[in-house]
Write a structure and sequence with these properties.
Keywords: Membrane, Transmembrane, Transmembrane helix. The protein is mainly alpha-helical. It has a domain of 30 residues. The protein starts with 14 loop residues before the first helix and ends in a 9-residue tail after the last helix. The radius of gyration is 32 Å and the shape is rod-shaped. The longest helix has 52 residues.
Length: 75
């Protein structure tokens, strides 16, 4: 029913193995990030401009609703 197999002893991981694996992973990720960086910056700038325009228009409207007209006459 169950097979009798001897477990294989795992190979020891050296610091060089870890360093090589992490460098290859970082290289892949860095390449993807560099490709997307320009487009993300453009979208962020457009979004910030849009928000500033909305805040400006809302503030302008609010100022018109609350301001009083003061007329000074010389007697």
């Amino acid at each position: 029913m169950a097979k009798n197999t001897t477990p294989e002893t795992p190979k020891k991981i050296t610091p060089d193995d870890l360093k090589n694996k992490l460098q290859s992973f970082q290289g892949d990720v860095q390449g993807k990030v560099d490709d997307k960086k320009v487009s993300i910056a453009g979208v962020a700038a457009g979004g910030a401009t849009f928000l500033m325009l909305i805040f400006f228009l809302l503030g302008k409207r609010s100022g018109k609703k609350k301001s009083a007209v003061v007329e000074i006459r010389r007697v």
